[in-house]
């Protein structure tokens, strides 16, 4: 759909783990912005590429609606929101274009240390605390297991100790948070990292040309980093 814009708009996380590396990557592509990083909108100085600084969870929706053309977001967020859309039967107009090599983590199922883990069948009838309900339900369906998904938007790892859930499904990087909560990872549902996301549909020709230019530069930067 025509946006009526002639400047490419990229959504990145305002405050969080991906904010600095996302800006650094775009900076390495030779882009710079007039506004300071604490502003919500950064006007591109030397190319028709502007930034919108938002909550990471809003990035897929901004692309879906065409308010932004590209975004940098964790694959975990992108896959969760497309799983949600699959559940509701309305396909998403966003997809992963490139893996960016930072923000690495995994979405793991973790159980209390004293469990003797035999496999997914053990989860039958259990309660799983997670911030990724659609991804977790999709995985449970694949495994043919019926379990209750308890949605928590923070402090997921404490749920078993509080008696809110039996096990958790959460992001893990070093594993220290699981250890501190007497949990152990037994199965990975998703390998995640920051990704460049874009629409499934074609961009307007002028925006598409700018996006192609940016993708070529990103590919160049990623090659050098490897
Ligand atoms: O405010 P906003 O909504 O934008 O930010 P947010 O709080 O939702 O996200 P943020 O900044 O915490 O994370 C952004 C993205 O970074 C995530 O979506 C992931 O793609 C990626 N990432 C990489 C991580 C981690 N590593 C990570 N370890 N996100 C979260 N964690 C958390 C995890 O949830 C757990 O609580 O860190 C804890 C575990 O860490 P370890 O090292 O103890 O295993
Ligand atoms: Zn978030």
Automatic annotation (TrEMBL):
It catalyses: 1-(5-phospho-beta-D-ribosyl)-ATP + diphosphate = 5-phospho-alpha-D-ribose 1-diphosphate + ATP. It comes from the Bacteria. Its cofactor is Mg(2+). One of its GO terms (molecular function) is magnesium ion binding. Keywords: Amino-acid biosynthesis, ATP-binding, Cytoplasm, Glycosyltransferase, Histidine biosynthesis, Magnesium, Metal-binding, Nucleotide-binding, Transferase. GO terms for biological process: L-histidine biosynthetic process. Feedback inhibited by histidine. GO terms for cellular component: cytoplasm. Residues 55-219 form the ATP phosphoribosyltransferase catalytic domain. The keyword ATP-binding applies. Its EC number is 2.4.2.17. It is an enzyme of class 2 (transferase). It is found in: Cytoplasm. Pathway: Amino-acid biosynthesis; L-histidine biosynthesis; L-histidine from 5-phospho-alpha-D-ribose 1-diphosphate: step 1/9. Transmembrane segments: none annotated. Catalyzes the condensation of ATP and 5-phosphoribose 1-diphosphate to form N'-(5'-phosphoribosyl)-ATP (PR-ATP). Has a crucial role in the pathway because the rate of histidine biosynthesis seems to be controlled primarily by regulation of HisG enzymatic activity. Belongs to the ATP phosphoribosyltransferase family. Long subfamily. This is ATP phosphoribosyltransferase. It comes from Thermomonas aquatica. The lineage of its organism: Bacteria, Pseudomonadati, Pseudomonadota, Gammaproteobacteria, Lysobacterales. The chain holds residues 6 to 231 of 304 of the full protein.
């Amino acid at each position: 759909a025509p946006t009526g814009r002639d400047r490419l708009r990229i959504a990145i996380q305002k405050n969080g783990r991906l904010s600095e590396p996302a800006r650094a990557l775009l900076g390495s592509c030779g882009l710079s912005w007039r506004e300071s990083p604490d502003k919500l909108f950064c006007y591109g100085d030397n190319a028709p590429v502007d930034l919108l600084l938002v909550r990471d969870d809003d990035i897929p929706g901004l692309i879906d609606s065409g308010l932004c053309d590209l975004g940098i977001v964790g694959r975990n967020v992108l896959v969760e929101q497309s799983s949600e859309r699959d559940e509701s039967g309305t396909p998403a107009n966003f997809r992963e274009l490139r893996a960016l090599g930072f923000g690495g983590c995994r979405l793991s199922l973790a159980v209390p240390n004293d469990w003797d883990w035999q496999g997914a069948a053990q989860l039958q009838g259990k309660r799983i605390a997670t911030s990724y309900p659609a991804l977790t339900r999709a995985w449970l369906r694949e495994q043919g297991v019926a379990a209750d998904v308890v949605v928590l938007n923070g402090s997921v790892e404490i749920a078993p100790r509080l008696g809110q859930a039996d096990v958790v499904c959460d992001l893990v990087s070093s594993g220290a948070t699981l250890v501190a909560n007497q949990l152990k990872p037994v199965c990975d549902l998703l390998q995640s990292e920051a990704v460049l996301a874009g629409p499934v549909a074609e961009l307007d020709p002028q925006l598409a040309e700018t996006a192609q230019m940016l993708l070529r530069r990103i590919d160049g930067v990623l090659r050098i980093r490897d």
